[in-house]
Amino acid sequence: MTAPRILLVDGDPAVRASVEFMLDVAGFCVRGTASGEAVLADGDAAGFDCIIVDYRLPGMDGLSLLRQLRSEGVGCPAIVIATNPPRRLRRAVEEAGVHLIEKPLLSDRLRTVVEALTARGKGPTS
Fold first, then answer.
1. What tens digit of pLDDT does each residue of 24-59 get?
2. Residue 123 pLDDT
3. CB-CB neighbours of 8 under 10 Å
């Protein structure tokens, strides 16, 4: 069985490195990148099992990136991470059908949500 592939988009190299490490230790194959524009230029977002994107990216914001990916047919589960998200952002994330996890990432909630999202559709596990 191959490890689920996770695309992590966060402009902060320290956050990106720590989340990559945490998910790698949990058994995921993670590719990190710093911007939404880089993801769109690369063009292979459809090959991932889950996308984690920071809302406050350099350039386009994380929710705009997800909307663009959805318009291109990328339908994998997604998570937006944000610091102190205002009510309007919470509502927009909910309307987009993605999960919201607040920074700082002090608990194991991000890992458990990624595990749940990547386990869907794979049948019962033993």
1. 999 999 999 999 999 999 988 999 999 999 999 999
2. 37
3. 25
Q: What is the secondary structure of 24-56 as a DSSP string? A: HHTT-EEEEES-HHHHHHH--GGG-SEEEEESS
Give the angle 96-58-31 at the CA atoms, nearest 5°.
75
Q: How many CA atoms lie within 13 A of 103 on its CB side?
A: 17
What span, in angstroms and rounded, lies between the C-alpha atoms of 85 and 103?
9
> Residue 16: what residue type?
R
CA dist 43 → 37, 47, 82, 100, 113 (Å):
10, 9, 24, 24, 25
Q: Which domains does the chain have, with CATH numbers?
A: 5-119 (3.40.50.2300)
Structure tokens, 11: 């402009």
